[in-house]
Amino acid sequence: MADGAFGSRKFSMNRNTGVPRPARRFSIGEPGVNEASSKVHRQFRAAHEGHLPHAGLDASRSSTGVVWCTERAAEHGFLDEPGQWANLGQGAPEVEDDIEGCFERPKTIDVSLSSREYGPTAGIKPLREAVAHLYNEMHRQGKSSQYTWENVAIVPGGRAGLIRIAAVLNNAYVGFFVPDYTAYNEMLSLFKNFAAIPIPLSEEDGYHIHPDKIAEEIVRGTGVILTSNPRNPTGRVVANPELAEIQDLCRERATLVSDEFYSGYNYTSNCDGSTISAAENVIDVDEDDVLIIDGLTKRFRLPGWRVAWILGPKEFIKAIGSCGSYLDGGTNVPFQEAAIPMLEPALVQTEMVALQRHFRDKRDYVVGRLRAMGFNIRQVPDSTFYLWLNLSSLPGPIADGLNFFQACLAEKVIVVPGIFFDLNPARRRDLFDSPCHHFVRFSYGPKMDVLKLGCDGIERVVDKFRNLASH
């Protein structure tokens, strides 16, 4: 190949054997010996079409990163003895009732006669009213424009909510940030009514979303901005006044889709129970194109209930509610009824204080353990329950996400390789060009004893490879 950006690319690999073959045009980087000879890299390439050399191939609906990692862990016995493993990959909080200050979760559910019937695809009115009241109390006091039940749709989980939003979007460029939540990848590739445009964030800049990035996207015609906030996997948050500035830029120009599932895991205000939400800066709830998605999954620690909600302008919500009739059929009605008393604002405020203090303590524990092992954690996350771990300081054989993940499996520890958060819905980029390749996501969502088990296993991995490197 002639001199230029691709001049250093000498070979690519047969995806099943790892044997080099003539150059292809998709990757500008050259895989090192650890990638070329690694079984887990070959498995990844075989499962994810974006890293195969067939540009015209329609990508299969592959599993998300967490599911793929669980499948690999199952090959090592995870499903047979899950209690002996530290699953730091699943993005789920502990669900037990032993967090001091938190209310006890229901152990039984009353099933009313009416709940045996099909429920409205937009959710039952009492729960929609409870969600609207919660946001008005926590984020819109003193504002003339208030949310009503017509500004709320109840959906069966966050993924279903994202799919509904995607289904009703008009022809548009949809801007999304890299790295971000793995399931966006499938959602952004499922529908043909919009084009997904990646917006890379910089590690050197702390993966910060600056308002000028939003302005640049709007200038080039991006009509929808999608982001998690607080952010998965980096654990960063966009807070006011910058969040308000971003919403000002989007107002009457672009729809902002704010995934706020980690809104309760906010450590920026000394764990006083304050939550992060774009609802704070909405001027008119029916005019501002701001869609907020949240639910019981994370901050109420009930991922198995599959009860979530979307807030937005009535016109949007009407369409989002209606499309549930052909997408998912609506949310389980008995669980909707059981969720209503949980959303009483004073109860939620007390719950958030307890949640934040507990998870901040867990964050500080794992950060201390990992730094003692030699991990370079430049910035302690100010939200969520994730650490975005740079592996570059580790010995070469475990300095990339997939090989580190593979080594951890041998110690019965699950993490998620960073490559899964490098959203690539159009399957245009190659694995070895990813800036996320040398990262993993570590979840401190599980209970403390699991975190200790996981840190012990990671320490064994690091010590093993450091000893091998010294001989």
From TrEMBL:
Residues 1-35 are annotated as: Disordered. Residues 112-426 form the Aminotransferase class I/classII large domain. It comes from Trichocladium antarcticum. Belongs to the class-I pyridoxal-phosphate-dependent aminotransferase family. Pfam families: Aminotran_1_2. Its cofactor is pyridoxal 5'-phosphate. It comes from the Eukaryota. Gene3D superfamilies: Type I PLP-dependent aspartate aminotransferase-like (Major domain). GO terms for molecular function: pyridoxal phosphate binding; transaminase activity. The keyword Nucleotidyltransferase does not apply. Keywords: Aminotransferase, Pyridoxal phosphate, Transferase. One of its GO terms (biological process) is amino acid metabolic process. This is PLP-dependent transferase. The keyword Transferase applies.
